[in-house]
C-alpha cells in the first residue's frame, strides 16, 4: 500500500498524489453482493434542490458490507481485497466455510488467504470480530457497535481506529478516533485492527475535474454572495464582513451545537480534543 506521485507533464498532474492500488487483488465486484445506487443530484421528491454542491459524478454500484459480523463461529477465508467507490477504506471478500460470501471493511495487514472469524470463540487477531467483553485491554479496534446487534458505526473510514482502555461493569471504556473517551456496552462487537488505506488523507486530487467525478460541484463562498443569499454576503467590493457563520446564521469557529440534554452525554467521560 503506497502513494503514486506524477511528473508535472500537465497542470493537473503537477501536484497529483493518488494510491498505487498495490493491495487490490480483484478489479470487478462480487455480483451477488452488489446493489443499485441512485443519485439524487441534491434534489428532494418534488425536484427542488435541498443540498447545494451535489450532482454529477461517476456511476457507482453499492457493495453490501457486513457491518454486523453476526455469522459467529464459522471460519472465513479472505479471497480478495477490493476497491470500493462508496468508502475511503478497502473491502475484503470473505468465503465462509458453509459457502456464504460477504464483504467486510478490510483492516490494515489483512491479506488474501488469511482466516477470520467472529464470535465468542474468535481469537483477538486482525480481522476477527469479538464482543468488547472478550477483547484484551489496550487493543486497537475498529467497526465498533454503539448498540448491540445494530452493526458497526464507529471507526469505519480509512486509517481510523479506537482503543479499548478499560472495563467497568457492563461498560467498556473506549477512546474514540476523535479523542473522545466514552462508555460502550461490553455486549457490543468490534473488529480487531486499524482500517486499511491509511494514506488516503495524503491524496491530492490535482484538478477540479476529479472532484466532479466524485459528484462534488463547485462550492461558493458566502462572502461572494448577495445579502439575500448569505449573512456574510453583500457590500461594495471585497467586503469579508461579519462573523463567520453558515447560511442559516449558525456561527463557525467554537460555537457549540451539541444539545445539553442529549441522551448520550452520560456515556461521555472525556470530550474530544478542541
Can you describe what's shown?
This protein has one helix spanning 208-213; strands spanning 3-5, 17-19, 34-36, 61-63, 76-82, 91-96, 101-105, 115-116, 129-131, 140-142, 162-168, 171-175, 181-185, 189-192, 268-270. It is mostly beta strands and 274 residues long. The chain folds into 2 domains: 3-200, Nucleic acid-binding proteins (OB fold (Dihydrolipoamide Acetyltransferase, E2P), Beta Barrel); 225-268, Ribosomal protein L2, domain 3 (Irregular). The strands form 4 sheets. Strands 9-14-10-11-12-13-15 form a 7-stranded antiparallel sheet, with no helix packed on it. A hairpin with a 5-residue loop joins β12 and β13.
Please outline the helices and strands.
Blueprint: E1 3-5, E2 17-19, E3 34-36, E4 61-63, E5 76-82, E6 91-96, E7 101-105, E8 115-116, E9 129-131, E10 140-142, E11 162-168, E12 171-175, E13 181-185, E14 189-192, H1 208-213, E15 268-270
Antiparallel strand pairs: 1-2, 3-4, 5-6, 5-8, 6-7, 9-14, 10-11, 10-14, 11-12, 12-13, 13-15
Q: What proportion strand?
A: 15-25%
> Helical content, roughly?
under 10%
Largest sheet: 7 strands, antiparallel
CATH A-level architecture of the largest domain:
Beta Barrel
Order of helices and strands: EEEEEEEEEEEEEEHE
Q: Please give the domain count.
A: 2
Poorly predicted ranges = none
Give the number of DSSP strands: 15
- The order of strands across the largest sheet is 9-14-10-11-12-13-15
Overall pLDDT level: 96
Amino acid at each position: 500500500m503506497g502513494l503514486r506521485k506524477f511528473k508535472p507533464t500537465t497542470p493537473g498532474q503537477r501536484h497529483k498524489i493518488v494510491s498505487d492500488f498495490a493491495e487490490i487483488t480483484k478489479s470487478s465486484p462480487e455480483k451477488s453482493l452488489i446493489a443499485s445506487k441512485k443519485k439524487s443530484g441534491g434534489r428532494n421528491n418534488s425536484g427542488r434542490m435541498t443540498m447545494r454542491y451535489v450532482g454529477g459524478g461517476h456511476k457507482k454500484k453499492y457493495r453490501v458490507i457486513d457491518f454486523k459480523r453476526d455469522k459467529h463461529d464459522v471460519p472465513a477465508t479472505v479471497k480478495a481485497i477490493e476497491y470500493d467507490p462508496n468508502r475511503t477504506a478497502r473491502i475484503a471478500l470473505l468465503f465462509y466455510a458453509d459457502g456464504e460470501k460477504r464483504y467486510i471493511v478490510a483492516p490494515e495487514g489483512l491479506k488474501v488467504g488469511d482466516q477470520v472469524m467472529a464470535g465468542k470463540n474468535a481469537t483477538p487477531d486482525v480481522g476477527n470480530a469479538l464482543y468488547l467483553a472478550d477483547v484484551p485491554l489496550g487493543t486497537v479496534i475498529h467497526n465498533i457497535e454503539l448498540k448491540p446487534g445494530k452493526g458497526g458505526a464507529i471507526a469505519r473510514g480509512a486509517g481510523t481506529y479506537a482503543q479499548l482502555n478499560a472495563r467497568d461493569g457492563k461498560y467498556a471504556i473506549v477512546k474514540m478516533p476523535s479523542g473522545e473517551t466514552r462508555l460502550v456496552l461490553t455486549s457490543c462487537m468490534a473488529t480487531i485492527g486499524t482500517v486499511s488505506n491509511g494514506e488516503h488523507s495524503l491524496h491530492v486530487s490535482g484538478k477540479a475535474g476529479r472532484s466532479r467525478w466524485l459528484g462534488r460541484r463547485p462550492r461558493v463562498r458566502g462572502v461572494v454572495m448577495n445579502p439575500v443569499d448569505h449573512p456574510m454576503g453583500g457590500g461594495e467590493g471585497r467586503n469579508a464582513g461579519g462573523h463567520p457563520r453558515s447560511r442559516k446564521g449558525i456561527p463557525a469557529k467554537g460555537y457549540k451545537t451539541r444539545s445539553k440534554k442529549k441522551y448520550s452525554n452520560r456515556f461521555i467521560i472525556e470530550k474530544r480534543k478542541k
